[in-house]
């Protein structure tokens, strides 16, 4: 089975978060509101989470990969970089920070060809999560 790319993982994490909220908002809403009266930062936490969700959605929305020629080949290239980094990491332990930086960028690029397949789902999940989070605010 092929390893999931960054965007598929993001979709899965968002789906799990949304499913949790779908099932638990009625239970946690009163608790959040009671906590907010004791710890006002709870409202800030929700607001900052909403801001992060909206920022993530804006970044995903900006990514239009359909017109990039050779994207599949670049994705294969970055997959090979990942394989190389896995091997190099053992031989260059003091370069782990650089290796992780390169791996992070390569992982984003590797997943780009599938972005168009999951982009609308990711954006819809973010919208649903934001709606739930707004409903939790006192």
Describe the structure.
- The chain has one domain (6-136).
- The chain has five helices and no strands.
- It has helices at 6-38, 41-62, 71-91, 96-111, 115-136.
- Helix 2 runs antiparallel to helix 5 (115-136).
Give a summary of the structure in a few sentences.
This protein has helices at residues 6-38, 41-62, 71-91, 96-111, 115-136.
Class by SSE composition: mainly alpha
Using the alpha-carbon principal axes, give the shape: elongated
* Number of continuous helical runs: 5
Cα-based radius of gyration, to the nearest Å: 19 Å
What is the count of structural domains? 1
Average of pLDDT: 89
Total count of strands: 0
The helix fraction, in percent, is: over 70%
Order of helices and strands: HHHHH
Distance between the termini: 45 Å
Strand fraction band? under 5%
Seen as an oligomer or otherwise, the chain set is single chain
Give a quick account of the main beta sheet: strands, pairing sense, barrel closure: none
Give unreliable regions as ranges. none
Secondary-structure topology with pairs:
Blueprint: H1 6-38, H2 41-62, H3 71-91, H4 96-111, H5 115-136
For this entry, give a set of tags.
83% helix, elongated, mainly alpha, 138 residues
